[in-house]
Amino acid sequence: MTGFGLAGKVRADPRAAYLMAPLRLRDLFLPVLLLFVGACAATPRTTWNYGGMVAAANPYAAEAAADVLRQGGSAVDAAIAAHAVLGLVEPQSSGLGGGAFMLVYDRAADRTYAYDGRETAPAGARPDMFMVGDAPMGFLDAWQSGLAVGTPGTVALYEVVNARHGRLSLADDLARAIELAQQGFEVSPRLAGFLVQMRGPSRIDDNPATRDYFYPGGEPLAAGTIRDNPAYAETLTRIAGEGSAAFYRGELAAEIAAAAQADPYPGTLSAADLAAYRVAVREALCAPAGSETVCTMPPPSSGLTEIMILHLYDLFAATDGAAPVIEGVDLAALVDAQRLAYADRDFYVADADHVSVPTDDLIDPAYLSVRAGQRVAPQGIPEPGDPGEVLRGQPIGDRWGRDGTDEIGGTSHLSVVDREGNAVSMTATVEAPFGSSRWAGGFLLNNQMTDFSRVPTLGGKPVANAVAPGKRPRSSMSPVIVFDEDGELKLVAGSPGGNSIIAYVAKVLVGVLRGGQPVQTAVDAPNVIARGPTVRVETGMPGGETQADGLSALGYPVEEREGENSGLHVIVVTPEGLRGAADPRREGRVIAVN
Ligand code: GLU
């Protein structure tokens, strides 16, 4: 089934684009010399001796992925297997009814691909659809509304990446999830906790289908209960047999549309929207930061902020003679880099297929050098910069109204490296916990449309991230793959956590790449989030109080918070082999496959 194909052409990341440039004779001298030297030095890219590894948010999912790797599946096969299981055992976070970003590193081709399976706004969506009179709808109403449901992208993504990077069939990739859905899985403490917590604010226990599934007999599923999901098994079986058409057309598409069009606040998602869904194959955004190259998803992802933060961090850390350094990390430099990157992100990032986003400008070293000069005093308020003015003398800062949209946590990240050294960094989401609480075919529908700005204009100016038909909402999800100075795979990372994803991922990049921290130390470290004037510090993790005190002493307005919602799943290539980390704040697991 090929109907749900690509809405863009595959382009190589800049490292590969260089290899494809037309050759002149004198250009051959250096490559031939390098080839000779390389042959003498036996470049490591010819063999991969590290085995494979998976880091995912739930043991069932990690086991499924490891099993697929052992069977000879690729990193992409393993990621699909893990994710299909997550849709069953961690339905509060992601699943078939949501969307995902997937970065794929193909080691033999030395290319990194960026697949955008983000939800799209239905054709009937309108910029003011979340307005009630002159005021935006309250978040709780918008979250549980039919208007919040975007066209899901996950299943189309499975199909596209399996066709392009899979070694096994899609049916093989889905087999473990089907079996587990038929046999039943043990409800985890985290899922059970969410079912208690979300009872009040959401409609998860009101909608008949989700009530019957999650609250049998009126009580939330308890941790340790065995829960099967025959409808989910049936949906996956049909996708395994018929491809994504089983999802985007026919009976299931009609069921999804009906759920989105139901009260309260019916949405417009239709069978035609589902039939029209396309995965966008984007150019991976790759840029040097220090001696490494960081590859990430371009907009509507916020991945570019990771490049900005690492770059700004290096500029600040180089000049911060006396700043407190904890575990090798200059905390003030990390906070100040985040402040500037968040301010730019909130202003400029949206779906670049619909509005103009200065992606390349924001990560241009010339802009970042000037931006570093706008470092904010600890008590100051970070403002967006203007890359148009800096780079071309043509201001673009008056173009948009600023978007302060908040996102709350229902997302999952998984990292995989296969036995050939290919890698996948995948962040998947239904947006808030249990998405819109609407249900079809054994899975939940997303509420991703609330990642758009609910107000279409601010201060008389349009908001870049305003709703429009077919548009993808801005996302904080920032999957990354980092390469070392020789272009060898170095780190695969990402996290859930709404807006704070940007800070969570940056903590790991800076901790591992600059602080030299072991990967688990970097993941365990207290999260520090600097979006806007205050700095949030996670004091519930060891060392958090020290960091909060240190930043307060420097004059930052610190807001202490006991726990954070990160779910970092990271793999690092070290001289001793692969090292992985699962976030202790969730239920994840790392499994090595040799
Ligand atoms: N929906 C959010 C996004 O795409 C993520 C929410 C979360 O991480 O929990 O940015």
List keywords for this structure.
Serum Albumin, Chain A, Domain 1; 2 domains; seven-stranded antiparallel β-sheet; 21 helices; globular; disordered N terminus; binds glutamic acid
- Parts with pLDDT < 50 across at least 5 consecutive residues: 1-44
The profile of the biggest β sheet is: 7 strands, antiparallel
3D shape: globular
Total strands: the figure is: 26
**CA(first)-CA(last) distance:** 34 Å
Task: Give the integer mean of the pLDDT values.
Answer: 91
Q: Give the cofactors and ligands.
A: glutamic acid
- What portion of residues belong to β-strands? 15-25%
- Judged by helices, strands and strand pairing, the structural class is alpha+beta
Instruction: Using the CA coordinates, give the radius of gyration.
Output: 23 Å
**Widest sheet: strand ordering:** 8-3-2-14-13-1-26
| Total DSSP helices | 21
Tally of distinct domains: 2
Percentage of residues assigned to helices:
25-40%
